[in-house]
Each structure stands twice: as C-alpha cells, then as structure tokens.
Amino acid sequence: MRAIAAVDKNWAIGCKGQLLVSIPADQRFFRQETINKTVVLGRKTMDTFPGGRPLKNRRNIIISHNHHYEVADAEVVHSVEELLGKVSDVPSEEVYVIGGQSIYEQLLPYCDEAYITRIDYSYQADAYFPNLDESDEWKKVSESEEETYWDLEYRFCVYKRVK
C-alpha cells in the first residue's frame, strides 16, 4: 500500500474536518496517482467529500466501526483485517491510503511508500500524519524542486519504508 497526503511543517493534515489548504498542483498529483486505483479512507474523511460521495473512477473502501454505515458506490469495512482481505488480490502499489489521521496511523505499518506534499507553513491544526522524518523505518528517497502557489512554498516528496 501507499499513503498519500499533504502536510505542513508540523506534519499537520487538517483542522476541524477540513484540509489545511487546497493547492491545485497537489490536487492534480493526487488525482493522477489515485485514478483507477483503490483508495482507503475513514468515515470522517468520507464526510468531507462533496455531497458525501465517493471519489469517481476509483474503488473507494471506507473503514468505519459503525456496522450500519453505508455509502452508495463504496465498500465499507470494519477493521484493518477486513480491509486487508478485501485488497489481498490488488497489487500493493494500486492501493492508496488517503486519510484521515487514525486511518494513516492504523495503516502506515502496511504501507511501503508515502507520497507527501510538504508545505512550508505552519497551520492551526487538529489532525496529523505520522512524522516520517523522525522514523527509522522511513527514508525520503526523492524531493521535487520547490514550487509555489501564491505565497506558499511546497515540495513533492517520496518516502520508502526501509525496515
């Protein structure tokens, strides 16, 4: 599996159920990476999608503890084990973990790569991605040139699991 996220200087990913910022190039990258693939997300992340609808042209799998939770055109699982069973026949590089915080925390041990857009700014936040720079299990293997959107500077980074 792969994780994909946009994070600020403190590895923050959201505040009050919303993304910290929308950068068009990051949104294009996310779409290019995940189109026609499987995306895994939590219920709270699903609730933030326009109209509460799954992402188009992707297999959406939602993890929720609520056994009555249903979403049209999406699959719902209730545990990491159930998820792993659902994606056991899918190539690992075609499964993307897309959030939120608790889903990243639960599934990062099953990921081999992480695509991280690093935004050079500190936002007020209440949701975070695990800090891969502080982990012995992860190594940054590539980093793009610095890009800007208005006054924001950001870079696209790829991390790989080394342990």
Word description of this protein:
- It is a single chain.
- This protein is of the alpha/beta class.
- It has a single domain (2-161), classed as Dihydrofolate Reductase, subunit A, CATH 3.40.430.
- The chain has helices at residues 24-34, 43-48, 80-86, 101-107, and strands spanning 2-7, 12-15, 18-19, 38-42, 59-63, 75-77, 95-99, 113-119, 127-128, 138-143, 147-149, 152-161.
- The longest helix is centred in the N-terminal third of the chain and has 11 residues, at 24-34.
- The model has no long low-confidence stretch (mean pLDDT 97).
| Tally of helical runs | 4
Question: What's the story with the biggest beta sheet?
Answer: 9 strands, mixed
Q: How many structural domains?
A: 1
Strand content: 35-45%
Let me know the average pLDDT.
97
Assign a percent range to the helix content. 10-25%
From the helix content, strand content and strand pairing, which structural class follows? alpha/beta
Which descriptor suits the 3D outline? globular
CATH topological fold name: Dihydrofolate Reductase, subunit A
Rg measurement, Å:
15 Å
Q: Could you name the CATH class?
A: Alpha Beta
User: Which ranges are low-confidence, i.e. pLDDT below 50, for 5 or more consecutive residues?
Assistant: none
CATH architecture call: 3-Layer(aba) Sandwich
Q: What is the rounded distance between the termini?
A: 15 Å
**Number of strand segments:** 12
What would CATH call the homologous superfamily? Answer: Dihydrofolate Reductase, subunit A
N-to-C order of helices and strands? EEEHEHEEHEHEEEEE
